[in-house]
Every structure is written in C-alpha cells, then in structure tokens.
Backbone:
C-alpha cells in the first residue's frame, strides 16, 4: 500500500504527481524520560519535490525528491565505498542492497563517485543502478517511515488512545529522538480524545511477520519515504577493550550486514545463502558458529547467560527489546553505542543505536 502511495505521489504531467510536504513541528509532551544520542539513517524521499523545472520533465525522466542524480546499490549484500577509484583504495563505508546515493561524478574507467549518508567515495560502476531505471526502482523500494521529531522519548501505544485513569497503561515501548519507525497507516483518527490523530506503526519483533503493531501521536512525527544509506566504517568499529572472541563474533555478524529478514527463518544455511532469518534466528546462527547453543526465540535467549546493565555492555553481548517485561526482539551489541540485528523486511540485517528503542534486558553470553 505504501509503495503504491509513493508511486502515485510522484506521477504527474508525464505521469508524475507531487504531494505537498507532510511535516509537523515538534510538540511539548507525550514523550518523557531522558533522550539519547542518535545518528539518523536513510536518504529521504520527501512527499514534496522542490525546485523541479516542470519543463524538463519527459517520459524518460522521473524526478526523485532529495536527489539530483540517484544511484541504487545493485548487490546481494553490500557495495563497498572506497577512498580512491581503485580496488586497493581504503574502504570508507558500505552501501547495503537497494540503498540510495547521489551520483557526484559519472562512470570513469569503471568507477563512479557517490555520496550516501555520511560517506563520499568511489564504487564500482557495474554494481550501481542509475538513470530512469534507478528512479523507477526507488518508487518501488522506498519505505514509508515516521521520524520522532521531539525530545526525550516518544511513547508507542497499544491502542490509538491515552487512557484517562492511567496514561501509561497502554504504552508498549518508547522511541528515542530522531529514530525511524515503519508506517502501516499514516492517519488513524479517533474522536472525543485530546489527541485524536495517530500513526499506526510496526516495531521490530518476532511475534509476527509485521513485527509489533502500535500507535504514535501524529503530531510528534514527520512522515516521509526513505531509502537506506551507507554505513560508515566508524559505525562498524568495535570500541576499546574487546577480546578476540568477542571481536570474531561481532565481525562475523557484520559479514551479513544487508542480508534478508524473513520472519520465522533460522539456521546457519539460511543465513549464509541469504534466504532470510529473523532476529533470534540471526543471533542463534552467529553464536552457533563459535560454539554457543542459543535457543530459538528471543524470549528463550533472554533467559540464558548473565543479566547485566546497559552501562556494562561489551561488544558481543545481547540486547533485548519488547513491551515492558515482554521480550520479542534481540540484537548483538557491537560497541560504540551500536547494535546489529535482523530488523525487518525493509532493512534486513542492519546497524542501529542501542537505544533506538528502550532495552528490556541485556545479557552476557560470552564469559571472558
């Protein structure tokens, strides 16, 4: 449904219609607790396109707002971005499959200069989709997302309402500032409520194929369409004081960055063959490689090892998410405030901030 809306919003004159911007200012309440540092991810495809010369539109050009010359990574896993146009050039970052970039310099001896997120460098031209083909693909693969635009934490509620007797009774999770949430329905209206406009969202979780469904107040989020972007090498750093065993596990997990997410998928063969695993299937497969036998579900995995505080996290520890004490998602901490996890159908295996949602529990499996 979302991709159809995106296509419709961009087809006008020669088949491209442009929607007006959907954006709301940050509000004061409906979010509480301390905020967390956040590095935004994704390249935005806004519902509005500004400064487009209508006279230049033709049947072979589909403007993609946010891009002057869009490129999309045509790889199964990750496209390396290098400092120089050479196989020996230092690796600056990695573009996951179907992530977007701005083409800065067109093909030159098999290399193209691009900018994706915080990374600017060179990629092999043969692994880049460009031109009208890239524009058409962007309309198909961009995801409808909501970005929390306030301070503190944004409450995600089980129902589109705030109970009068206990305003926290239907809160299932909280989202850190700037974090992105997948949108299932951009407008759910309720009546007779102080806050009556809601966005139906999906949180990462192994309860169902769509994750955990919840609602956030529309006035505290900005809606847009986005493509994934490159990960910097700094985001992939482990941090200080990491044992070789922990480093091996984390580096092995990062090998599968960009691989597919499939709800219910498990097993090292499915992971290796890129046939898709879910969050607990991912952690189970990674740890099995190094002799750790984790159970199948995130809830069962949370009962293994030793519980630790989030302040004690080391690369290779497990972080669990869910609703209050109920656990339905698991990730591997990789250091420097980051986790790697099989997230959802949109992103697959990705890197996020450890506090992108509020952790329910942290567990140490590796005793060293």
Residues:
């Amino acid at each position: 449904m979302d991709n159809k809306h995106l296509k419709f919003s961009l087809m006008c004159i020669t088949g491209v219609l442009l929607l007006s911007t959907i954006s709301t200012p940050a509000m004061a309440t409906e979010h509480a607790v301390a905020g967390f540092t956040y590095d935004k991810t994704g390249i935005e495809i806004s519902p509005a396109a500004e400064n487009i010369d209508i006279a230049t539109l033709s049947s072979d050009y589909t403007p993609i707002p946010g891009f002057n010359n869009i490129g999309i990574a045509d790889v199964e896993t990750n496209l390396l971005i290098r400092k120089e146009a050479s196989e020996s050039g230092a690796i600056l970052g990695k573009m996951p499959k179907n992530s977007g970039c701005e083409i800065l310099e067109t093909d030159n001896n098999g290399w193209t200069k691009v900018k994706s997120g915080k990374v600017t460098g060179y990629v092999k031209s043969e692994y880049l989709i460009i031109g009208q083909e890239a524009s058409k693909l962007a309309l198909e693969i961009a995801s409808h997302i909501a970005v929390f635009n306030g301070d503190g934490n944004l409450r995600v509620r089980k129902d589109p309402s705030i109970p009068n007797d206990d305003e926290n009774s239907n809160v299932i999770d909280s989202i850190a500032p700037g974090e992105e949430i997948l949108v299932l329905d951009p407008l759910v209206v309720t009546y007779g409520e102080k806050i009556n406009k809601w966005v139906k969202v999906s949180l990462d979780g192994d309860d169902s194929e769509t994750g955990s469904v919840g609602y956030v107040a529309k006035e505290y989020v900005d809606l847009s369409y986005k493509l994934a972007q490159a990960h910097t090498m700094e985001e992939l750093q482990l941090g200080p004081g990491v044992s070789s065993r922990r480093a091996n596990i984390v580096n092995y997990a990062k090998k599968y960055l960009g691989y597919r997410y499939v709800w219910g998928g498990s097993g090292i063969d499915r992971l290796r063959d890129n046939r898709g695993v879910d969050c607990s299937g991912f952690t189970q497969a990674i740890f099995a490689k190094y002799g750790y036998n984790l159970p199948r579900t995130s809830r069962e995995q949370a009962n293994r090892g030793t519980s630790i505080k989030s302040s004690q996290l080391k690369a290779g520890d497990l972080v669990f998410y869910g609703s209050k004490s109920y656990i339905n998602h698991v990730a591997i901490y990789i250091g420097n405030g980051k986790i790697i996890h099989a997230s959802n159908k949109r992103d697959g295996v990705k890197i996020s901030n450890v506090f992108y949602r509020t952790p329910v529990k942290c567990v140490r499996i590796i005793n060293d």
